């Protein structure tokens, strides 16, 4: 029987721990974990993500602020805002929602965020720590961190002898995911749009991570029987069966097909998505604890 990896349930576990540790931190030091989420422009998907991050932060007992900036905001103004948040003692985590408008250099903004408040784990310092195996002291990007917890529930912490294939080489998911799998002793291959015979490569994977942003791209016959499939994709596709103009969320994996073959699989929605937000809260708490010494 295929095991459906319930991201909502595992995320609730993580959040229960975060809430408890937050109460302890507040009680013993008076420090309230603070997160600032910055959104530029009106991308509807980003607005939904940002609202749910704020809501979860408040549920955890955090101080949560959102900065909503106009689409036309200049790069200099955004740099100035990030610098003011870097200096703000009430803020332990800063997240600038991506993508940013085209006229803003996202790489510059990411590097402006203090590595000590970089709860997304995108800053060079944190990327470098993960790349050199210093995972414990780094802020690990939230989606790969959440995916690793799900993999751990199936395989434990040591992935020695297991083949992992990560489809997608983004800085946000694919590359850090590959580094975390490597740090856990898996044998890792990163596949991408230029990879030859992707289906055959995917069939070698004991752990298959799909992070490409293409709806239902990974088919059932790409999955090795019994493999663990982690679907990072969140894609909105038309759903005429629900009525005209309606849509539904699907992952990068063709779930009905893959679920017949996999040993364990994450659904969309209710898989990696809830884990990402939970890990953002965990990273913010970690940052607040660090300031307590
Ligand atoms: N946009 C999509 N995913 C993410 C993420 O994990 N962090 C940020 N900052 N923006 C995103």
Please sum up the structure shown.
By secondary structure, the protein is α/β, with parallel strands linked by helices. The protein has helices at about 5-30, 45-60, 75-85, 105-110, 125-130, 140-155, 175-185, 200, 255-260, 270-290, and strands at about 5, 35-40, 65-70, 95, 165, 185-190, 205-210, 230, 235-240, 245-250, 265. About 40% of the residues lie in helices and about 15% in strands.
What would your notes on this structure say?
The protein has 293 residues and is α/β, with parallel strands linked by helices. Helices cover 41% and strands 16% of the residues. It folds into two domains: 28-114, 3-Layer(aba) Sandwich (Rossmann fold); 141-274, 3-Layer(aba) Sandwich (Rossmann fold). The strands form three sheets. The protein has a six-stranded parallel β-sheet with strand order 1-11-8-7-5-6. The protein has a three-stranded parallel β-sheet with strand order 3-2-4, sandwiched between helices. Strand 5 (163-167), helix 7 (174-183) and strand 6 form a beta-alpha-beta unit. Helix 2 packs across helix 10 (272-292) and helix 6 packs parallel to helix 7. The protein is globular. The model has no long low-confidence stretch (mean pLDDT 97). Bound molecules: guanine (GUN). Guanine binds at residues 95-98, 120, 142-143, 172.
